């Protein structure tokens, strides 16, 4: 099956958009059903102690993931970033895994809340017993939608890999070493974006589900969010502008980030903390492990990027629209060449023409 090149881009974006639209609608339905089945007589204290806030947090995080997925897809197709397109297919697989985790965690939470009595009322429960029956089919449908569209995404990704690879070849040329340098840069920039998502996903769950607003750790964790965003932005600037001192500083920050997530991961499974993390341990563990892996791979790739400093790559990545700028330059160069050839064929640069000039003369 052969489609015009723009059609593969539209097909990939269409798949991601369709998945986002369907999943957002289904997640909204699950959220509505959950809120509808919560007993209206529940107190704010019991709402917090019974972790009824956990399920809305999972659903909101999934919605954020789909919006992030859609935005990253648009960015990847606009920049013709092959690595980011491949990363999005892997990210979609991670969403499939998380959808399975979501199914299990929501079932556990619903069973728990359906057996929890209201304070001072032994005849009524926090959550209606029919809630799970109304949400189960929808949660299964979410898994199926992500799985089916994920397979189609991998096929279209292969087609885009061929298309984008040819475009980069025309823009950068046949220099193998330069292409390897550009590949390392693309991988690192893509990793930074996914680092940001998984870090924010972990932090939001940790703050909303686990921590109490009166805890000192709550304020410290919230303060880490803007600091992390600034650090990632500075990392992008350091690598893009080949600033060695800033890159070294960022490398140390990434090491500190890995230590932070290792501490959180170990603490979740300490006997004294087990009850505190029951509501979100599987989800937090998944996000912590993925973030640790991404930080490790980012640091390794950062070393490769630093080794490529001052080797001619900087002009290609001077701005966010480097690929488009190079494509425009390539098109204008080819246009000028065609124009010169046209002038030659029309006699505008023939030896008999008044404006003739020998191109290879000594002057």
Automatic annotation (TrEMBL):
Cleavable signal peptide: none
Database matches in InterPro entries: UPF0658_Golgi
Region (Disordered): 329-363
TM segment ranges: 12-32, 53-71, 83-101, 139-162, 182-211, 218-239, 245-263, 284-304
Domain of life: Eukaryota
The entry's keywords: Membrane, Transmembrane, Transmembrane helix
Protein name (Swiss-Prot/TrEMBL): Uncharacterized protein
Organism: Myxozyma melibiosi
């Amino acid at each position: 099956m052969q489609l015009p090149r723009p059609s593969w881009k539209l097909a990939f974006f269409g798949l991601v958009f369709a998945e986002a639209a369907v999943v957002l609608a289904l997640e909204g339905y699950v959220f509505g059903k959950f809120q509808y089945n919560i007993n209206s007589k529940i107190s704010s204290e019991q709402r917090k102690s019974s972790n009824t806030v956990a399920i809305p947090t999972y659903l909101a995080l999934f919605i954020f993931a789909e919006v992030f997925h859609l935005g990253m897809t648009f960015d990847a197709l606009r920049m013709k970033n092959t690595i980011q397109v491949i990363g999005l297919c892997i990210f979609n697989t991670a969403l499939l895994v998380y959808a399975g985790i979501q199914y299990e965690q929501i079932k556990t939470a619903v069973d728990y809340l359906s057996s929890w009595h209201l304070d001072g009322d032994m005849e009524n429960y926090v959550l209606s017993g029919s809630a799970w029956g109304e949400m189960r089919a929808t949660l299964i449908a979410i898994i199926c939608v992500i799985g089916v569209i994920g397979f189609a995404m991998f096929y279209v990704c292969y087609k885009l890999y061929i298309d984008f690879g040819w475009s980069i070849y025309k823009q950068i040329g046949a220099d193998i070493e330069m292409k390897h340098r550009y590949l390392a840069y693309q991988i690192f920039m893509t990793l930074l974006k996914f680092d940001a998502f998984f870090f924010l996903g972990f932090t939001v769950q940790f703050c909303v589900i686990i921590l109490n607003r009166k805890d000192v750790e709550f304020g410290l964790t919230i303060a880490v969010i803007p600091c992390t965003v600034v650090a990632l932005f500075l990392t992008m600037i350091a690598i893009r502008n080949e600033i060695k001192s800033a890159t070294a500083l960022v490398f140390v920050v990434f090491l500190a980030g890995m230590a932070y997530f290792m501490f959180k991961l170990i603490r979740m499974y300490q006997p004294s903390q087990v009850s505190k993390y029951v509501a979100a341990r599987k989800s937090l563990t998944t996000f912590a492990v993925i973030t640790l892996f991404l930080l490790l791979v980012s640091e390794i790739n950062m070393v490769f990027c630093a080794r490529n400093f001052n080797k001619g790559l900087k002009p290609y990545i001077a701005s966010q629209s480097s690929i488009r700028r190079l494509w425009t330059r390539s098109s204008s160069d080819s246009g000028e060449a065609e124009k010169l050839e046209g002038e030659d064929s029309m006699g505008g640069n023939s030896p008999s023409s008044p404006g003739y000039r020998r191109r290879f003369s000594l002057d």
